[in-house]
Amino acid sequence: MSEWSSANVKATVSAAEWQTRVDLAACYRAVAMMGWDDLIFTHITAKIPGTDHQFLINPYGFMFEEITASSLVKIDLQGNKLDDNPHPINPAGFVIHSAVHAARDDAQCVLHTHSLNGVAVSAQKDGVLPLSQQSIFVLASLGYHAYEGVALLDAEKPRLVNDLGTKHFLMLRNHGLLTVAPSIADAFQMMYVFEAACTIQVRAQAGGELVRIPQAIIDGATAQSKQVTRGMGGMLMWPGLLRRLDRRFPGYDQ
Question: What is the pTM of this model?
Answer without folding.
Answer: 0.93
